[in-house]
Amino acid sequence: MTDVLELDRVSYWYPDAQRPALDGVSLTIGAGELVVLAGLSGSGKSTLLRTASGLVPHFHGGKLAGTVSVAGMDTRTQTPAELAAAVGTLFQDPETQVVMNGVRAELAFPLENRGDSAPAVARGVEEAALALGIAHLLDRPTSQLSGGELQRVALAAALAGRPSLIVLDEPTSQLDPVAGDELIALLRRINEDSEATVVICEHRLERCLSIADRVIAMDEGRIVCDAPPREFLAWACEALPALATPGARLLQGLGLRPAAGVKAARAALRADGYDVSDGAADRDAREDRGAPEAARSRPARSRDAALRLDRVWHEIARGPTILRSASVSIATRERVALMGRNGAGKSTLLRHAAGLMQPTRGRVHSAGRVALLLQNPTDYLVHETVAEETSPAALASVGLEGFGDRHPRDLSGGEKQRLALAIVLDDAASPPAVVCLDEPTRGMDRTHKHELARMLREIDAAVLVATHDPEFVAEFADRVVLLADGAPIADGPAAEILSGGTYFATESARILGGAGGALTPEQGIGLLRRAEVPA
Amino acid sequence: MNYRRRASPLHVARAGAGCAYCLALACAALLLSSPVALGAVVVAIVGAGIAAGLGREMRRAAPLAVTLALVIALINALVTRDGLTVIVRLGDLPVLGHTDVTLEATVYGLILGLRAVALIMCGALYTAAVDPDEVLKLFRRVSFRSALTATLATRMVPVLVRDARRLTDAQRCRPGRPPSRLALMRAATAGVLDRALDVAAALEVRGYGRPGRPPRVHRPWSRHDIAFAASAVAVVGLSLGARVFDLAQFSAYPSLHAPVGVGTVAIAVGLVVCALLPFADRRGVQR
Q: In sequence order, what are the residues at sequence separation of 6 or more whose Cβ sits closer than 8 angstroms to the Cβ of residue B197?
């Protein structure tokens, strides 16, 4: 097997950094491999990808030691533009990596940059569009595409030059579960069809481990594990549990060897004599035995509601209807998750709850102030120091008491999120009756999600969170409202809503076929232990 | 206002022809001063917009154009001392001094305003009907970096507008006293710089900056390319002809002189017909 990416004792320091972002990394990745990069935030995953695309050190500056070779080219002597012929790169945010106004021009851009002839450009555009199923978008302006469509277009642009290496930095973090799964499946197909090497960095490992040939785990700039998915999971369960998927934790808790993906996990359970058929789910639902406490939660009655949206419509003049008679009621101290695909109306509903928008019909009632934390926490950070942003008491409440002198923009993603939360909650004269958060876990690793879920559970107010992340919902929510086309289509206990499907279900629930409403590995272990059948 | 491909002859014409067409209409507005001829240019531009399916974009640009036209007319009437027919005596005004508003200055101001209306509407037509990516291709062999900068600026405007809206919403969600304007300005600037860095990185990994010029692209001339190029030539020819042979006369000072003869009417009608004729043939516009 030919090596496509080779790093030999690579260390890298960002400008003015004291600690290296990469510390003595050596690895080789061969042609046709699909590699998942795992690690907590700040572990060096993105830096490694940027090293492969040549942005490190040419774009970011800093100090690089060791050698990086991509398809036989030394990244120290070749610029990112020259390496682009061999490396296709996709970043997190589709908005800023699409540079042209039209999809066709966007796909043609990298080919024209490398001097391909007009027929070669036209052919490359057509092939990339067909490979990614975006031929129908070719004549559309990029400004009118959804996040999922834009990410596909950016991937097509990265692939148009038929690179031998494709590096992707959390490409699904801005997508809903359906679009995210589609993108991952697409990568597998591209990898199989063209033998292109794919290196993908992703926090939600359960989404992509089943398609990976190999997993490289990083911690503090070093490679701490390099193994096939199953061995990686066994290692993660012991050495770095924050990287273990829910399915792996479920199997490990039952004393079984972790497996990657729902199919493999179910097979492992069956082989050990556990009944994980979908029929078992029906049976358990009827018996309702061992259902978690949250499963018995019911929607709030209107009279004791902290927040009530009463047949709210949001109709844009000469545009679409975003909310269609949406009615949602949330009780005091209730924890509710708002789920649904992109464009379902989740963010709009939160904005109505917080009074940022006025309904065109219907009413919003609240028992007090509604605090809203929007998707991008950086938008809240406008001062020069953390201490200027909010009060010391508020900082202490989110565990940032020692950060007063730091610049808010220098904080990590999770710290920014906590600071923004402290800002919206900080009003001693008028503590919020309801706290709304819009997609708070985007790009967050499991440790930070767990920390956020703990904080949300401790807030003395009703909490409403719009999210695509069922694992996070299972950790904090009592109830789930599922939105589609601007109206709730399901509203019930988290255990009921999250255990009955594929896209809006936790990995544990999918493995157990929804049995007993178990959403987390711990609930699943308890359920299977109670119902243990001798092998 | 963004470019969006529509089923119209102007949208399917090559960018070069579209640019030439819009440029010709703008030249006509600059060359002609007769109210009848200038009115014909405005009619031609608005008519072209409607024929290209851009009625909404034209309506959106109209308030800005008309407001600017009125401001120009007002300023000209107040600051110009020429003209014999005084219609209002305002006496001594601060800054302006002794001010008599004359009919000639007012009319000339309106003519200047009408010209501004024509140019703004022409800009709106260009923005909504000519593909900026095609324009980039047209100019990239001459000055790639400038053309790309222009295209990126167009592309980033809606993104930055959305960023600004988000920042405003986030500040509305802050309890207590709102941050100072300076702090907001600083945050907005930092956000723009972050965006710029992201885009620069994306450009690098798409191969921008590789040595060598992009290849020349040959594309056969369609009937619409030819029609709009011919129309551009005809519009410029008529405007130049009117100017050289004094067919659309107008002078404002010292007294108004704007005869409407057969020549003026012929030029006006000719301009409208030449500008709108390419829209008559709608074969092959559906994509």
A: none
Main-chain phi, psi angles of A506, to 5 degrees = -75, 165
Contact partners, residue A482, CB within 8 Å, separation at least 6: A339, A340, A488, A489, A490, A491, A497, A504
> Kind of pairing, strands A73-74 and A479-484?
unpaired
Query: B 176-195 residues with CB below 8 A of A?
Result: 176, 179, 183-184, 186-187, 190-191, 195
Chosen for mutation from B130, B154, B165, B206 (greatest number of chain A CBs closer than 10 Å) is B206
Query: Nearest by CB to A423, which of B167, B174, B205?
Result: B174
Pseudo-torsion of CA B131, B137, B139, B141, nearest 10°?
180
Q: What is the pTM of this model?
A: 0.79
With contacts defined as CB-CB under 8 Å, which chain A residues touch B137? 105, 112
pLDDT in tens, A280-301: 555 555 454 444 444 444 555 5
CB contact A112 to B (< 8 Å)? yes
How many contacts, defined by CB atoms under 8 Å, are there between A and B?
168
Q: What six digits make up the tokens of B133?
A: 């990516």
CA dihedral over B13, B16, B21, B26, signed as positive or negative = positive
Structure tokens at A69: 């070779």
- DSSP assignment of A369-399: -EEEE-S-GGGG--SSSHHHHS-HHHHHHTT
Residue range B168-202, pLDDT digits in tens: 889 988 888 888 888 888 888 888 888 888 888 88
**The domain A3-240: what is its CATH number?**
3.40.50.300
- Where are chain B's structural domains? 9-132+222-280, 145-205
* Six-digit token string for A45: 């995953």
Edge-to-edge, what's the strand order for the sheet holding A22-30? Answer: A22-30, A3-13, A63-70, A73-74
Q: Does A81 touch chain B (CB under 8 A)?
A: yes
What is the rounded CA–CA span in Å between residue B145 and residue B208?
10
Q: Do B287 and A112 count as a contact with CB atoms less than 8 A apart? A: no
Q: Where are the alpha helices (DSSP H) in chain B?
A: 9-12, 15-31, 35-51, 55-79, 103-129, 132-172, 181-205, 223-244, 262-276
Rounded Cα–Cα distance for residues B79 and B88 (Å): 13
Instruction: Please give the Cα distance from B79 to B94 (Å, whole number).
Output: 12
